[in-house]
Amino acid sequence: MSDRQQAPLKEKRRLGNWMPAQERTAAAFRRRIAAAAAAAHDARRAPLAGVVRDLADLVHGDAVLRMNLTRAIDEARAAGYDLGYASIDELMRIVDYLMTYAPPFSASAPVATPLNVVLDWPMCMPSGYAVFRDPAFNAQLRRVLDYWCGFLSGPHSRAHLNGHAPDGWFCEEAREKMGLEEFVCDPSQPHWGFESWNAFFTRRFRPGARPVAGPDDHRVIVSACEASPYDVRENVKLHDRFWIKSQPYSLREILTASQQDLAERFVGGSIFQGYLSAFNYHRWHAPVAGRIRAAYNVDGTCYSDVEAEGVDPRGLNDSQGYMTAVAARAVVVIDCDDPGIGEVACVFVGMAEVSSCTIVALPGQRVAKGDELGCFQYGGSTYCLIFRPGVIERFVPQPPYRDDVPPLRVNSHLATARG
C-alpha cells in the first residue's frame, strides 16, 4: 500500500506542545477557525488585509504556484484529512482571520501556532513541498507573519492575558504550567503588566531565577536557551546532503554561502541542537564569554519540511536538522575569551509562526557568559551551537533524548570544553 493510500494519521508526536497531538483535536480547531473566518468575512464584507491579498494575488498570478497549492490541498483532503477549507480562496480567508488572533491557553490541547495547524497537511503533501520552498511565496508569507507580529505587539492582542480559566494565561493551571512566579510580572496590574502578547511571550526571568553555571570557568559552556536536547553530531561537514532522512548538518548552508570562510573554520567540529516549548522562555543567552565576531539574520522558509520524512511527517518536528539550513534564522558568532575554545556559532532558527528573530548583541560588543543575545518574537523555535574541532570534551545531555522531561535550563551546564 502506498503512502497516499494509508489511513490518515490519528496522532502526531508533537515536540514542544505547540499543537495538539490528536488529529481530531487539530481538525476541530481548523473547522472552528474556518467557521469564524467565514462569519467574519460575511459580517465585514471588507477586503482581505493588504498583505494577505498580496499573497493571494501572488498565488493566483503564478500558474505553477496555484497548481501546486491547489493540488496540495486536494491531496491532503483525498488522504482523509479535514482541513476546514477546500480551496485557495477559503484558505486565504482563514489566514486573514488569523491576522487578529491571539492564542488562548490550553494545557491539554494547545494550539500555539494556529497557522501551522491550518497548513499542517498541505505542506507535507507531494505538491506542497514545492510551494513552501518557493522564494517568492516565502517572501510574501514573511510579510504576512510580520503583519501578524504587529498585531501581537499591540494592546489588542491581550484578549487572553487574564486569570479567567480555562483560556487565560494567568489562570491557576497556566501559572503552574509555566512557573509564572519565576518571571517578572505584576498581578496587581491589568494584564499583569504586559503591554502585548509579544511582551508576555518574551517575558523575562526574575533576577537569580537562572544562575549562570561556572561563571568564571571557561570550560563550562552553558545552554543558550531554555530548550530540550534534540541532537548532537560530531565531525560536521562543510557541505552535506541535509535534505536526506538522516539530515546531516551542512555548515555552508547553515551559516550561508557568503560566510564560507567562517563555515570552513568549523569543519570537523560538533553541533548541539535543542528545541523550545510553547511554554518556555524565549530569549537567547551567551553560552560563553567573549566578543561578538558576527551577528546577522538569514531569510529563509517558514513551513518547509523534508520529503525524506515521508508523505506524513510529524509536522516540522522531524525536520529540525534540515531547517537549520533553510529556515529563517539569526546567527551570532562569539569569539570566546578562552583561545582553546575560539569561535562559537549560535544559530537561532524560526520555525512556523516565528515573526522575527531579534538580535540585541552586535559585532564588537563584549558579552559575559549568560548575557542576553536576542529573542524569538513568537512561534515554534529550535537552536543549535556549533563548536570548532576538538573543543568539546563532553556534552552533559546524552542520548536517548526524551521529550517527556523538563527542558535544559538556560544558563545551565550544557558541555565541558577540553582543558
From TrEMBL:
InterPro entries: PS_Dcarbxylase, PsiD-like. It holds the Pfam family PS_Dcarbxylase. Residues 51-178 form the L-tryptophan decarboxylase PsiD-like domain. Transmembrane segments: none annotated. Keywords: Decarboxylase, Lyase, Pyruvate, Zymogen. It comes from the Bacteria. GO terms for molecular function: phosphatidylserine decarboxylase activity. One of its GO terms (biological process) is phosphatidylethanolamine biosynthetic process. This is Phosphatidylserine decarboxylase. It comes from Paraburkholderia caballeronis.
